[in-house]
C-alpha cells in the first residue's frame, strides 16, 4: 500500500483484517513511527482497533518509502494524493513519482492497482511510467464515506475493477472474496468514470435539495415536508434529500425484529440476526413482511439494499398507547395518521413525530391454507448434535422384508444382527437406502424411542404452546430431560393432555407429583432436539420464542399454539369487580411476547403490551392484554369451552360495549395506536437498514409498521468532459447552486447580525467536512467561515474533532475553542455548520447567558429544535423553514 493517508491507511487495515498480509509505505517518517506504535493520525470509527489488531497479528506493518514495501508484493496499491487545481484538473505528480519509484523493483507478474481518485486515462499513464510489460495496471476506485470508511470497506455496496486483462481483474477481485461483495469488472476508463459520476450525481441531488429549500423559504413552505413528499416517489428516492451539503442514512437498532422469508422458509429475525444471515447467504431472494394501506393484509415483498453501519448520535424511541415501541435513528421515516382517517397516511421523520400522532399495527397477516404434513425427527437428532452412528432405527413390521434385501449391502457381521433385531444404525440405513416412515428411533436400545416423524396437527401445536408456557429442558450427564409443570390440583386436564399426546406417539412418559406441582417428564435427547433445535423454542422461560414453523401454519394451528400458551400461563379477570373483563398473559421472554403479539395480529386481534417487574423477579415481565368486547368475543377460543359462557355473560352484562382506548381500527389491515411519548437518547453502536421498494414500509417488533430506511468530484468531471469536447452544463449548474448556498448562509448570518459583519464576532459550531471525522478538506463549514472572515467578521469556532489551538493551515484566522460554549461568549450570532450530535445536547440556558442579545442562531444544518430554542428566547433561522 503506497500512501498511509485516509484511503491508504483504511484500505491497508481492512485488507489485513480479512486475512491478507499488508505492508503500508509513506514518505512521512514520523507518521510511520506513530503507526507502528498503534497511533492513528485520523479520526475514523473502528480504524484504531483494526490497525492495532493488524500489528498484533503481524499481518500489517508500516515502512518508510515505497521501495521498502514492494520487493516481494503480489499487488501494489497506489493510494497517494491527487490534488485538484481550481479548474478541476488533477495533479498526477504523486502518482507518477510513486510509479517511477516502484517500477524497477516490482516482482514479475505483480499487479499495480490505482486506488487514488484519478482522472480517466490514469491507468494508461501509470503503465507508461512503469515501463514493464510483465506488470499489469488495474483501476479499483474507492467509495469510502468519511466517518464510516471501515464499515464501507468491509460492507461494500459494490467493488469496481477496471482492466483490459481479465486474468488481472480476477486476481484483484479475489482479494475481496471474504466480503462477498457485488462485483463489477469493466474497462479502466469506465471504472475511473464510475467514481466521478457517482459523486457528481450525489452532488446534483444535494444542490437540487438546497435549491428547493430556497424556493420553500420564498413561498413559505416547509422544506422537510416537501422533501419527504418527494422522497417516497420510488423514481426519486430518499438518499441525500436534506438541505445542507450532506445527508446520512436512517436505520434500525439491532434488537428490533422483522419477519423474513427466503427459499420458502419464514423466520422471525432481529435486524442484527438478519444482517448476519445476509452476510452468510447473500442479499438475493429475501422478502420481508411489509404493509400497504390499500391492501387487505400485510404481505411479503422483495427486500433489497441491506446495510449495517456503525453509528454514534441520537436515536429516537417512539412509544404508543398499545405498548408498541420502536427505536430508530432520528432521520428514520415513520408512518403516521391523525387517528380519524387513515386513507392517506403521512411519513414523518422520527424526530418530527409528536405525541398524539397515530401509528399502524399490521393485522390479518398472510394466511396459509395447507398445514404441514409431518415433522421429521431425524432432523432433531442432527440438531441435538447426535451423530448418525449413535441413532438406532427400529424397522416397522411392514418393512422387515425390504430391510432383509437391502441389508446385503452391509458387512456380514452387521447383516446378521440387523436382520435378527430388525434394527440398525442411522448411518447404515442411509448407506443402504433404507427408508421407513413408520420406523422408530432412539439413542439407546432400552431407553425412550420416538416415531421417525410426528404429525403436525392441532394437538401438536397445543403441546408446543404448553411447552412454551410451562416446559423446560435440562441436561443430566448425557441425558436430556423435558419437563412440564402444572398446578398440583387445578390442572389435571393439562397433565393428561401432554402425557396422553406423547403416549399416543409411543413415547415413554413419567407423571410425578412434586411438592408444589405435577410434572410430566420425558427423557429423550431426540425430543429435546425437536423442541430446542428443530423448533428452536428455547430451553427455559427467559429465552422462549415462537417457532418459525408457526409463521407458515394455517390459522387453526396458530390458534392451537396460542391456546396451549394461554392454557399454561394465560388468564382472564374482571376489571374493578366487573362486568368488564380482560385476557392476560405474562412471560419473562421479550422474544416470546413479540411473537405472540404478531400471531394474535395475524388472527385479527390487537393485544396491548405492558412491561413490568414483578416482586422478587430479576427480569422484566412482558404482559399481553386483550380487551374490548369485540376482541374478547373473537378470542374466546383461548379458553376451555366450559369457561366461555361465564366470560360471555360478563361481556353481555356491560351497559355498553366497551372498546379499547389505546387503538382504533381505521383500516382493514391495521389497528392504529396513539403515540404517547417520543424520547431522544444518545447511542453508539451498529445500526441496520433495508429497503422494500414496493411498499416503502416494514412490519417491525410487535407488528408495528414503520417506513423503510433512507438508504465531490464535480469540478473534476466537468474538466474531464471538457477535455473530451463536451460542455457539461448541467453539472456546472450544480456547482453554481452549491456555491450560491454558501453565500446564502453568509447572508443569513449577516441579516441576523443586523447588517454589515465588519468587526462582528460570530460563533461557529462545526469545522469538519462532516460529523464523526476530523477531515477539513473540502469542508462546507470552512467555505462559509472563509466568506465570513472576508466580510470582516471575527470567527470563534468549536468542533469535537479539532483541538483548540490547532495549527492546520485551513484554520488560519479562526479562533478554535475547546468547548461549544467558549465561542458564544460575546458573539452576536451563533451559526451551526456541521451536524455533530454533541451540539444538540448543549445547555441552551448557558448558551443564552453567553451570547449578545437578542439571541440569534442560524442553523445551516437544521440540526437544532426551533421550538426548544424559542423557549429559551432565541431567534431561530434555518434552511428552507
Rg is 33 Å
Number of strands: 41
CA distance, first residue to last residue: 47 Å
Weakly predicted, low-confidence segments: 85-89, 241-249
Q: Largest sheet, if any? A: 6 strands, antiparallel
Which percent range describes the beta-strand content? 15-25%
Q: What spatial form do the alpha-carbon principal axes imply?
A: globular
Helix tally equals: 26
Overall average residue pLDDT: 86
**Helix vs. strand class:** alpha+beta
Helix content: 25-40%
What does this structure look like?
This protein has 881 residues and is of the alpha+beta class. Helix content is 32%, strand content 24%. It has 26 helices and 41 strands. The strands form twelve sheets. Strands 8, 13, 14, 17, 32 and 33 form a six-stranded antiparallel sheet that branches. A six-stranded parallel sheet has the order 38-37-36-39-40-41. α1 (6-17) packs across α3 and α11 (377-383) packs across α17. The longest helix has 32 residues, at 188-219. It starts with 5 loop residues before the first helix and ends with a strand. Mean pLDDT is 86; it is low at 85-89 and 241-249.
